[in-house]
Write a structure and sequence with these properties.
The protein has a single domain, classed as 3-Layer(aba) Sandwich (Rossmann fold). Helices cover about 40% and strands about 15% of the residues. It is built from eight helices and eight strands. It is globular. It starts with a strand and ends with a helix. Bound molecules: nicotinamide-adenine-dinucleotide.
Length: about 240
């Protein structure tokens, strides 16, 4: 199948692109190439016959329409986002524009494309979100987030992702667009951007610098290996 992957030059998106190409899918990698992008992440597959790259911004609806028409994808995996919590506190505007308005544009472009194709049931709009939309868990490790956990975002980043989740759900309920919405925990693994916690800790440790710890150090995070995340079987299954 042909998958339009947004944010495919970023950390998780590039793992999805590499995995999908390895599994024999065709991939259109749509990325604006912000500071967080690195095309070296997809260098190993960039010469594959099924790989195409489109530098475009999801805030640009006309560009999205052109790309859907040019490539005719069977599914969308939406990972393009502003993703760094600390940056969202310093400057929330980009998070609102990319994560909310950008997702709205992509939903509308995908809906127009899906409608033109005759509304196939097999079409998928997979929105990759975060467990941070659910806020924090209590210290009791037996308590987990579930699909019915109420939304409780705590930062401009998680609030913008929560808003995008609501748009995706609404486009399914209102227009019938076939969507999948996943709320993963923190990812780690190859090509992780150096500003994120695990690379920062490793790089500081190697340089003999202090290790930054959030709060008083008692917080617990759940970590998902990025290559495991990218194998997400239902998303890459042939229709
Ligand atoms: N990294 C994590 O631990 C984690 C955890 C949970 C959820 N997520 C979600 O997974 C997705 C991918 O996260 P990541 O860590 O790979 O992010 P990332 O910051 O590494 O990559 C994001 C990519 O999106 C692109 N992008 C940003 N704004 C864009 C725009 N306006 N138009 C087109 N492309 C744009 C960037 O150039 C970059 O390549 C995000 O939606 C994020 O919210 C990430």
């Amino acid at each position: 199948m042909k998958i339009l992957v947004t944010g495919g030059a970023g950390f998780i998106g590039s793992a999805v692109v590499r995995r999908a190409i390895r599994d024999g899918h065709q991939v259109v990698n749509l990325d604006a190439l912000t500071y967080a992008a690195c095309l070296a992440n997809v260098e190993s597959v960039s010469n594959a016959p099924g790989y195409a790259f489109e530098q475009a911004d999801i805030r640009d609806r006309a560009a999205l329409d052109r790309i859907f028409a040019a490539h005719d994808p069977d599914a969308v995996m939406h990972l393009a986002a502003e993703s760094h919590v600390d940056r969202s506190i310093d400057g929330p505007g980009d998070f609102v524009e990319t994560n909310i308005t950008g997702t709205y544009n992509l939903l509308e472009a995908a809906r127009a494309h899906w409608t033109r194709k005759g509304r196939p049931e097999s079409f998928r709009f997979h929105h990759i979100s975060t467990d941070e939309v659910f806020g924090s868990l209590p210290p009791d490790p037996s308590v987990k987030f579930t699909e019915t956990t109420p939304y409780d975002p705590r930062s401009p980043y998680s609030a913008s992702k929560a808003a995008s989740d609501h748009l995706v759900r609404a486009w399914h309920e209102t227009y019938g667009l076939p969507v999948v919405l996943t709320n993963c925990s923190n990812n780690y693994g190859p090509f992780h951007f150096p500003e994120k916690l695990i690379p920062v800790v490793i790089l500081n440790a190697l340089a003999g610098k202090p290790l930054p710890i959030y709060g008083d150090g008692s917080n617990i995070r759940d970590w998902l290996y990025v290559e495991d995340h990218a194998t997400c079987p239902y998303a890459l299954r042939d229709p």
